[in-house]
Design a protein that fits this description.
By secondary structure, the chain is of the alpha+beta class. About 20% of the residues lie in helices and about 30% in strands. The protein is built from 19 helices and 53 strands. The strands form 15 sheets. It has a 10-stranded antiparallel β-sheet. Strand 12 (about 165-175) and strand 13 (about 180-190) form a beta hairpin. Helix 5 packs across helix 18, helix 10 packs antiparallel against helix 12 (about 445-465) and helix 15 (about 530-540) packs across helix 16 (about 540-555).
């Protein structure tokens, strides 16, 4: 009986894993539009992503190296990013050609047609039209397999171009024998110091027929920062050349070991079949039943995209390159790379806690090692480089979610230590956040988004502390998690930036500006996942909050302010194409309107995910766009990662069967109850003991004219009508002696430059002290600007140019005026003739942001405002290629000159040149202060 049971169980598992799920994978989904995916061959979480490159210009829609609208292939490289918004990778590029070899991109590239192109899970093929060459690609985790069929007889070439796509910092090619070479490619792009070693083995002897080397040539070793070689042989019609490429992040020895472990086979079809089996094994974790083949294709391609990354980043012997750029060995865990955490903490990682707990613990062990070897948890880690892209410290969300769901296999105490370290740093506005309980525009750009996301991350750390019984840490971080209250404007219900103690104005919730990350106030005003009941209460209850959710879906579907390419898939202001909106439709559940959640989710599933190249409504973002689809179609979503519960909606498919790692299954149908869905996969999790914590009192708002002529009235308003407000003032020149705070009763008037300090208090809990400075104008001049300021960069008014308040290098704080594609010209009127002895104007350069110092600056004088005399011309000496953010003061001493009017003219750099990533675009002039003595 026992033997019969085991046999039947084995038969069940055989049938389960042998089902063909890869037939529903279409790697071309997302390669068009703005999906930024790639169609090439890879295996689940593999180091190799072997794919064609049709874009080498670093363009936004070419971030993955491929776009479906293109018709030219430049080569086949071994690393690619899946759906990111920044370009990188494209390492170790090979390209087969025929005839006389060329190392020029335009010469070795080839036209192709989609009718001769095929992509499946783990496989890619295409016909190169120029020389009638058939290319087939497949992979293991660390080895890429190429098969080139030359359909004409003649001289066959394989081009190796190490200058492909990004900047080569250090290249080396070592000829081992006539069939084997080794390659080092150290490059700079998004990851500023990326190492890739490769071992390349040809199936037949090849000779170097052409080379471009700007470094040393020592026997069979070639080095340089310009490095390309052609390897050639004679072929008959229909003859094949196979190439195997093993990658390693550590060394030549690592690449050789990886080749020995995974590159022994010379049977391309066997390797292809093995890749297909690996994909089936992963995809079979979720069985979906539907009569609609397109829906099945969208679902399993979404799952495929989720399993494309993070990527294993260690050799077969466990060696990896750490964040300290040293070689380490992973003990009993897999070390990974490519963590797009701002995106993936929301849905992709919570999904992994359900279907891949072991890999989740591997990810967290990787985080811990990056903390130990790099000083902090990853934010957006790429190839052992911290890019510091995006905001927050969302690795703590992944850790807290895993701990809350009982996932083991990593050191909880060390994970908590690393998480707390990230929260206690003094970078990216955290210093102001810790002291003031929010970030203002004066402190840091993207201040609203950072405050809100830090507050959620702090809640995550509090949950870890609760699990570990750390009462004081729990109370500290729970209080910090309430920092969102300081940016919630009770008058309009939006999360609004604060500047100089006051609300930033003018305020338009649709405006995309530097106060938000890839979004606007509509997108961020719902991001309090750690305290949704508190947010509902702030709005005045469920009925009012329901109206506010309705508002985002019914608002005009156009944004104002800066153009933001990431904001796509708009329903009103809801943007499915970017992550900040992903949880919003589920908030209807919190106001007892689940039918509205169902309606919105079904609309998005029906309309924004298609079986076509442009089938993704926005960037795939390393699996997050697809994770939203997978979770939502199953009827669940993680609104608050860190809680072992799901928010729910009606399942999209007739039946879904989830196979968990412990061997159990969960079956979902359209009739599955909400209570069952909420605890799906985590039914036996017991909550940790709660500790009491104090409520935070929000800081008051101080309003007055920031720049005034003679006097201004100061008004201080608490954000809660039950709070008491206390304040003190300090006039300019007044001694810094400690002054006592007094009760605020009514507005008061100041007539000197004054600093006002205030705080609120409720139930003996004091808010942070808010500080505002109001400046009496240093002069009574007038200024007329004859150029058109960009509405994003006005610095408040034209008087910002002569107010004595100087901008810092972080121009996103809003103290600079910006003028794009035009010269700057302004005329200052002293109101009466004055003696001029010295004049200066200050400009900013941030080349990457298109802000370049003016070519030259001219100063003119006039008595009547009509006839001007040129006093001085100053030439710019800053190299436009210098990417350091810097301030340059164009200052000159003058012979005493009497004038009533002074004209300042700064000449724009003009069109961005070919070497710039924004080539052809219009450069900005950023000017702040004009000073005249």
């Amino acid at each position: 009986m026992k033997k019969t049971f085991i046999f039947l169980l084995g038969l069940v598992f055989h049938n389960f894993f042998s089902q063909n799920y890869t037939q529903y994978v279409n790697p071309f989904i997302g390669t068009g539009g703005h999906g930024h995916t790639f169609p090439g061959a890879t295996v689940p979480f593999g180091m190799v992503q072997l794919s064609p490159d049709t874009r080498i210009d670093g363009s936004w829609d070419g971030c993955s190296g491929y776009h479906y609208s293109d018709s030219v292939i430049y080569g086949f490289s071994h690393t690619h990013l899946n759906g990111t918004g920044v370009s990188d990778y494209g390492d170790i590029m090979l390209m087969p050609t025929m005839g006389t070899p060329s190392l020029q991109t335009k010469e070795y590239s080839s036209k192709f047609s989609h009718k001769n192109e095929k992509a499946t899970a783990g496989f890619y093929s295409v016909k190169l039209d120029k020389n009638n060459i058939n290319v087939r690609l497949t992979t293991t985790e660390r080895v890429g397999y190429h098969e080139y069929t030359f359909n004409k007889a003649g001289n066959a070439n394989i081009i190796l171009d190490l200058n492909h796509r990004d900047k080569l910092l250090e290249g080396e090619v070592k000829i081992i024998d006539d069939k084997t070479i080794e390659v080092l490619r150290r490059s700079e792009a998004w990851a500023t110091n990326q190492y890739i070693y490769a071992r390349i083995e040809f199936s037949r002897p090849m000779k170097i027929s052409k080379k471009e080397v700007n470094g040393q040539q020592d026997g069979n070793i070639f080095t340089g920062t310009r490095l390309a070689l052609a390897f050639s042989t004679t072929v008959k019609k229909g003859e094949k050349i196979n190439v195997k490429v093993a990658l390693s992040p550590t060394s030549y020895e690592g690449a050789e070991k990886n080749m020995l472990a995974e590159g022994k086979s010379n049977d391309f079809e066997a390797v292809r079949k093995q890749a297909d089996e690996k994909w089936n094994r992963e995809l079979s974790k979720i069985e979906v039943k539907s009569e609609d083949k397109n829906k099945l294709t969208v679902f399993y391609t979404a799952l495929y995209h989720i399993f494309t990354q993070p990527n294993i980043a260690m050799d077969t012997d466990g060696k990896y390159r750490g964040r300290d750029n040293k070689i380490h060995t992973a003990e009993n865990f897999g070390y990974y790379s490519v963590f797009s955490l701002w995106d993936t903490f929301r849905g992709a990682h919570p999904l992994m806690t359900l279907i891949d707990r072991k890999r989740t613990s591997d990810f967290i062990n990787t985080f811990i090692k990056q903390y130990e070897q790099g000083g902090k948890l990853p934010v957006w880690e790429l190839a052992s480089n911290e890019t510091e892209c995006m905001i927050g410290y969302h690795a703590v969300s992944v850790i807290a979610d895993a701990m809350a769901k009982g996932i083991k296999g990593f050191d909880y105490e060390k994970a908590f230590e690393a998480s707390k370290n990230s929260a206690m740093l003094d970078i990216f506005g955290l210093d102001a956040y810790k002291h003031n309980n929010f970030i203002s525009i004066d402190d840091e750009h993207e201040s609203v988004s950072k405050t809100l996301e830090y507050a959620y991350d702090d809640w995550c750390i509090a949950q870890m502390a609760k699990i570990l019984g750390k009462k004081e840490d729990y109370q500290y971080f729970m209080k910090r998690s309430q920092n969102w209250k300081n940016l919630y404007n009770p008058k309009n219900g939006f999360m609004q930036a604060r500047k100089n103690g006051n609300w930033y104005s003018p305020f338009d919730p649709r405006e995309v500006n530097n106060n938000y990350t890839e979004g606007n106030s509509w997108h961020y005003s719902y991001f309090v996942p750690q305290d949704i009941p508190g947010l509902i209460s702030a709005h005045g209850g469920k009925a009012e909050f329901e109206k506010f959710i309705d508002g985002i879906f019914s608002a005009p579907d156009t944004t104002t302010g800066r153009e933001q390419v990431d904001i796509t898939g708009l329903i009103g202001q809801y943007a499915q194409g970017n992550e900040p909106s992903h949880h919003i439709a589920y908030l209807y559940n919190y106001v007892d309107k689940p039918q509205k959640t169902d309606e919105k989710i079904k609309f998005i599933l029906d309309n924004f995910y298609k079986n076509s190249p442009d089938g993704l409504i926005g960037n795939e973002d390393c699996g997050q766009m697809s994770a939203w689809y997978i979770l939502s179609s199953m009827g669940i979503y993680s609104v608050t990662p860190g809680l072992p519960v799901w928010e729910t909606t009606t399942p999209y498919f007739d039946e879904i069967i989830i196979h968990l790692e412990d061997g159990s299954t969960r079956t979902i149908t359209k009739n599955t109850g909400k209570a069952e869905l909420r605890k799906l996969g985590f039914e036996n999790i017991q909550p940790a003991k709660d500790f009491k914590y104090s409520e935070q009192t929000a800081a008051p708002v101080i309003s007055a004219d920031r720049l005034f002529d003679f006097s201004t009235q100061v008004e201080i308003t608490s954000l809660n009508p039950n709070d008491k407000v206390y304040y003190t003032t300090q006039e300019e020149g007044e001694s810094n002696g400690k002054k006592s705070f007094k009760t605020y009763k009514e507005p008061f008037t100041i007539s000197k430059t004054t600093q006002v300090l205030a705080y609120s208090e409720r139930n003996k809990e004091k808010s942070a002290v808010v500080i505002a400075r109001f400046n009496k104008r240093p002069n009574h001049w007038d200024i007329n600007v004859n150029s058109t300021v960009n509405p994003q960069y006005t610095a408040g008014s034209k008087f910002a140019l002569i107010d004595g308040i100087k901008g810092a290098t972080n121009w996103r704080k809003g103290e600079w005026q910006g003028y794009q594609g035009q010269d700057f010209e302004a005329v200052i009127d002293f109101k009466s003739p004055q003696q001029i002895r010295k004049i200066s104007s200050t400009y900013l350069q941030d080349s990457r942001a298109w802000i370049l110092a003016p070519k030259k600056v001219e100063y003119y004088a006039s008595m009547d405002g009509k006839s001007y005399i040129l006093m001085k011309t100053l030439e710019n000496n800053i190299d436009p290629k210098d990417e350091k953010v810097q301030i340059e003061n164009f200052v000159t001493d003058l012979l005493p000159t009497e004038a009533r009017f002074v004209k300042v003219k700064a000449y724009c750099f003009g069109k961005l040149p070919a070497w710039h990533q924004g080539a052809g675009g219009d450069a900005y002039i950023f000017i702040d202060e004009i000073s005249i003595n």
